[in-house]
Amino acid sequence: MPRFTRFAALAAAGLALTACATTDDLGDVPEPMGRFLLGHAVTVVEEPQIGPFSREATDEAWEEAINFAMTERFGRYDGDKYFHIATKVDGYALAMVGIPLVFTPKSVLVASVTVWDDEKGTKINEDPEIFTVSEELSIEQLIGTGLTKTADEQMLSLARALAKRVHQWMLENPDWFGDASLMDPATTSAGRPAPTAGTIPPQFARVKDGELEGGTEVGGTSTGVKADTPPGATVETTTTEGMVVESSS
Fold this sequence. Notes:
249 residues, alpha+beta, six-stranded mixed beta sheet, 5 helices, 23% helix
């Protein structure tokens, strides 16, 4: 099956069950989730399916966006047992410029997620859970984010939507993370809001007419687009307790 057809089938199946997400809850103390404390957030990108009418992004850009979003959301917890979140990007579409209200390509991310128990060194869910998400709900979706956002911003929005869906799934399985009553209140807490809630951090911010919008330092052009990446990138390997990740551009 051609890659576009395979991606369309995969994305359509997921989106049929998934509404657009909002992530305004990042500014709140997170819902209780047992003894959870984030250990590592690791992302693997290996030849993902790329949808039609899509910008093509680097593996490293996806890794940065998803690891940031997972840490932003799950780093709010202050439990006493470490858990790791491993994500594999299966496919994506980053909307290109279209015709507002007539033809507006959509951004979509399909990813598989596995949660690891650090103490046991084992997977909690043996089979990866597959998620399909669109960008966070906003008025910009009506005119197409290909017109209003850089690739970096689209990836951040999709990554945040993915992190929220993963969070909802984990909250549905409270027995995974232990009994919160066993924690020592002197060394743990109910958690905290994310300091980056409601913002576009500098590394994902938009640059317009040579000036940065949404951040305080330079760093927000579409650096994650493959056409802007020099060839011959090196392979990087990261090892985390029981998880080995290899990535290349």
